[in-house]
Design goal:
Elements: H1 2-24, H2 26-42, H3 44-64, H4 66-97, E1 102-104, E2 107-109, E3 112-118, E4 122-128, H5 135-139, H6 142-148, E5 153-160, E6 163-169, E7 178-179, E8 195-200, E9 205-208, E10 215-218, H7 225-241, E11 245-250, E12 267-269, H8 274-294, E13 309-314, H9 317-321, H10 327-343, E14 349-355, H11 360-363, E15 371-374, H12 380-387, E16 408-413, E17 420-426, H13 429-439, H14 450-459
Parallel strand pairs: 7-17, 10-14, 10-15, 11-12, 11-13, 13-14
Antiparallel strand pairs: 1-2, 3-4, 4-6, 5-6, 8-9, 8-17, 15-16, 16-17
This protein binds adenosine-5'-triphosphate.
């Protein structure tokens, strides 16, 4: 009597499995079914002809529009190939050996492999965690997972409770420099909440928020801090020229950095002594004065105030608050910087602080910077010091950024769990000359009068 029920059960199970296979491997299933149908209807030669035409069509498509061919064809094929040859065959063993599967009272609890998507440079693999598991357990095994699945590295993202997405990285999409876009002349296009300073690894624009935010950029010498700094200035240029934004700079390295385009700045000081501290205190006093005027009137600076948004760029913050030998100056600088970072948000003051060496004195200010950018760093501890605890475990390995890719950085914004990897525009010396000319008022030469030019030509 039970036999018909068992048969129905087996049939339903088979159908579910077949549907799952069709959903997980649509290209393979469609290609195999169509090929079989063609072979059965017309025989072998038309099938071979159709296959050759398909391959030729693929080449033409790739030649005409490579990105769309990759997205719609190649990455789908790659997804199915990697799922079938890497993730499915090794999943169970890797889960068991890396202690991510658990056996309880004879029953095995094993994380479930869900959707796989290959994007060429990375595979996105969704995983359903077993009960009582936390993302930190996966983060602690990133290296094991990367090696097990033949990837260069692995990152862990939480999508929703119990659902994770693992990024298995195969190559670096940011290995090539990103050229700066053309200088804009339209100041209304400058969005202070989204200044585009480069490209993220997923191909989107890398944006930084200046309005209502303070920015800390840290990287060893040669990591490309200059490119982040000049990318910001490049994008702000139309607003600076129109008087909407005011740039103020302090370059304790004697003008090595900001001296490359002083025309962009309303005021600039090239040392870390009394002049620099006086400028910081002046800005801090302005912050307090504007804040008291805005109190109860507005919560955030807006263009309609008619007052310029001020961006203070300090090229080596540690020179002011750590290396300055005069204790009094050091303390005055620290107090002023604390005032600007903690109260500057509403009255329209943003501090962009660049640092080579994230020492204790600088890191104690870290919480005042809502956006933190870690370019190449030397040690893993420095990454924690800059981006905060636990961010490196989520994949932000700034100490692993290659020396050959200056400008590549990890970005952590307050309120956003996942760090982002991006590369700043490569602002060359020629670009800085162009930027300088952009700010230099045009010189108007009088046309020589007819008589003078006549004399000139006679003399010639
Ligand atoms: N985004 C970028 N893309 C490509 N190359 C870059 C980028 N940024 C910087 N570089 C190159 O890397 C080198 C070092 O850059 P940069 O001087 O900006 O580093 P830095 O961190 O400011 O160094 P320092 O602390 O010594 O001033 C330069 O040769 C520059 O051309």
């Amino acid at each position: 009597m039970a036999a018909p029920f068992a048969l129905v059960g087996v049939a339903v199970w088979l159908i579910v499995r077949l549907v799952l296979v069709a959903v997980r491997y649509p290209v393979t299933v469609l290609a195999s079914v169509s090929a079989y149908w063609m072979y059965a209807t017309w025989g072998l030669s038309p099938l071979v002809l159709a296959l050759l035409s398909l391959v030729a069509g693929g080449f033409v498509w790739a030649g005409l529009d490579l990105p769309s061919f990759l997205r719609h064809v190649w990455y789908r094929v790659l997804t199915e190939w990697r799922r079938a040859t890497i993730y499915v065959p090794q999943w169970r063993t890797v889960m068991r050996l890396s202690d991510l599967a658990k056996v309880q009272r004879g029953k095995e609890y094993r994380p479930r492999l869900r959707r796989v998507r290959s994007e060429g440079w990375r595979d996105r693999v969704r995983v359903r965690m077993i009960p009582a598991q936390s993302p930190e357990q996966w983060e602690a095994r990133r290296e094991n997972l990367a090696h097990s699945f033949n990837a260069r590295s692995c990152r862990v993202r939480v999508l929703r409770p119990r659902l994770l997405e693992l990024d298995f990285i195969h190559s670096d999409p940011l290995s090539r420099p990103v050229p700066v876009p053309a200088l804009s002349v339209d100041e209304s296009a400058v969005n202070l909440k989204k200044i585009v300073v480069g490209l993220t690894e997923t191909g989107r624009a890398w944006t930084l928020r200046l309005l209502g935010s303070q920015l800390l950029v840290v990287g060893v010498p040669g990591a490309g801090k200059g490119s982040v700094l000049w990318s910001i200035v490049w994008q702000l240029a139309p607003a600076v020229r129109a008087g909407l934004v005011r740039l103020v700079g302090i370059d304790p390295k004697g003008g090595m950095e900001l001296g490359q385009c002083p025309e962009a700045f309303d005021r600039v000081v090239y040392d870390n002594g009394p002049d620099a501290v006086a400028l910081l205190e002046e800005i801090a006093a302005e912050v307090k004065e504007r804040a008291s005027r805005y109190r109860g009137v507005r919560r955030l600076w807006a263009r309609s105030t008619g007052e310029p948004f001020t961006v203070l760029i300090v090229d080596e913050l540690a020179d002011l608050i750590a290396y300055q030998p005069d204790k009094q100056l050091r303390e005055r600088a620290s107090r002023a910087i604390q005032t600007i970072t903690s109260q500057g948000r509403a009255p329209g003051y943003a501090l962009v602080g660049l640092v080579q060496d994230p020492r204790k004195e600088v890191v104690s200010f870290r919480h005042l910077f809502s956006t933190r950018v870690a370019l190449r760093l030397d040690e893993p501890q420095q990454v924690d010091m800059v981006l905060g605890d636990g961010v490196r475990q989520r994949g932000a390995a700034a100490h692993e950024i290659s020396e050959n890719t200056p400008g590549v950085a990890w970005l952590k914004t307050d309120g956003q769990r996942e760090p982002e990897r991006a590369r700043a525009f490569h602002v060359t010396d020629a670009d800085l000359v162009e930027l300088g000319l952009y700010f230099t008022p045009a010189t108007v030469h009088d046309f020589a009068s007819k008589r003078t030019s006549g004399e000139g030509s006679a003399a010639a």
